[in-house]
Design brief:
The chain has twelve helices and twelve strands. The chain has helices at about 40-50, 80-95, 135-155, 170-175, 190-205, 225-240, 265-275, 290-295, 305-310, 315-325, 335, 345-350; strands at about 10, 15, 20, 55-60, 95-105, 115, 130, 160-165, 210-215, 245-250, 280, 300-305. The chain has an eight-stranded parallel β-barrel, surrounded by seven helices.
């Protein structure tokens, strides 16, 4: 068996393969209160039946003023837990593990009322001027992340990922482009890391499961963080008990990014090798052969698939065909997939065609 369909263990969780559905905003919470809808249940469960090993819920806000949009899912209230649990149960029923990405959009929040950031600097022209967070705002937000983790545990999630990428609040604290503070949360790399450090510590005080962090490993700006800075941050996260760094890039400030298949894999590879921590590779990985190459050459440990899984919920099954792998799939789909998947032991094939060889 190739690497893509091999098991992956992290703490007490075993993934049946190394295919991960990246967190992707669905903007489908139509009630504008962060509640789960029927769409969410069907959307995530379908990827479980498509044999994705780990499915991440979209960016889920720990604060109503920290939503990317008013249609985003939330976890700032105990009333959210029941709906989130219904998604967890549906995904588990499909045989997959499920994670939640806890987030706060900071200055990039598009909501009514005030938005907050480490410094009062707009993301870009036309967006709101954020209010610089006070010490009390910072401590309250750190506690919001902790409470989000408590509710995630109550809902039954297998993995928590902290969203520290794409120019959202934690990323704003990490970046010298958006953090101009002169107190203990700004200035040096160590100080800019303090906000994320305290969030990790608070989550780990109540959470024993796998903890991932998504980063933007390059800010594509001469004065912004570069991969060397994120090697430093990754080392700090490793020492705090983070299990995997999910390596994306960009979106701290508007930038032109040259994208191509696997364009961000170099970040996952460098952090993995320099820090000796597991990493997730992401970025236009649409082909099973590319995914297998990344894993075989130890350039990353998990393959995060985004838009390709929006186009095709059954991408893992097609990847198995491409790699000639014999994998499990729902019994109800057997007749279709046995005709194109390699069946090594004839067991499934014999159910449909007794006495015939596959």
């Amino acid at each position: 068996m190739g690497m893509l369909f091999s098991n992956y263990q992290v703490k007490n969780i075993i993934l049946k393969n190394r295919i991960v559905m990246s967190p992707m905003c669905m903007y489908a919470s139509s009630e504008k209160d962060g509640r789960v809808t029927e769409f969410h249940k069907i959307h995530y469960a379908s990827r479980a039946f498509g044999q994705v090993g780990l499915i991440f819920l979209e960016s889920t806000s720990v604060d109503p003023q920290g939503r990317i949009s008013v249609f985003d899912l939330g976890i700032w209230d105990n009333l959210h837990v029941q709906g989130l649990k219904s998604i967890v149960d549906a995904v588990h029923n499909g045989g997959s593990k499920i994670g939640i990405q806890l987030s706060h959009a900071g200055r990039k929040a598009i909501v009514e009322g005030s938005v907050y950031a480490p410094s009062s600097i707009r993301y870009k022209e036309g967006m709101k001027l954020p209010i610089e967070m006070s010490y009390e705002d910072i401590k309250r937000t750190i506690n919001d992340f902790k409470n989000g983790a408590i509710r995630s545990q109550e809902a039954g999630f297998d993995v928590i990922e902290i969203h520290a990428a794409h120019g959202y609040l934690i990323n704003q604290f990490l970046s010298p482009l958006s953090n101009k503070r002169t107190d203990e949360y700004g200035g040096s790399r160590e100080n800019r890391f303090r906000f994320l450090k305290e969030i990790i510590e608070e989550i780990n005080s109540i959470w024993n499961g796998p903890l991932f962090v998504r980063i933007s490993a390059s800010e594509y700006h001469p004065e912004g963080n570069k991969i060397e800075d994120f090697i430093y941050y990754a080392q700090m996260m490793k020492e705090l008990g983070v299990d995997l760094i999910d390596c994306s890039s960009g979106a701290v400030v508007p930038a032109k990014i040259d994208v191509f298949p696997g364009y961000q894999v170099k970040f996952a590879e460098k952090i993995k090798r320099e820090v000796n921590i597991d990493t997730g590779a992401v970025g236009l990985i649409t082909n099973a052969l590319l995914a297998e190459e990344i894993l075989n050459n130890k350039r990353g440990d998990l393959i995060f698939i985004a838009r390709e899984l929006l186009r095709d919920p059954y991408w893992p099954l097609r990847a198995a065909v491409q790699l000639k792998e014999n994998i499990d799939f729902p019994n109800s789909y057997e007749k279709a997939w046995t005709e194109i998947l390699p069946i090594n032991n004839n067991a499934i094939y014999q159910r449909w065609y007794p006495g015939k060889e596959s």
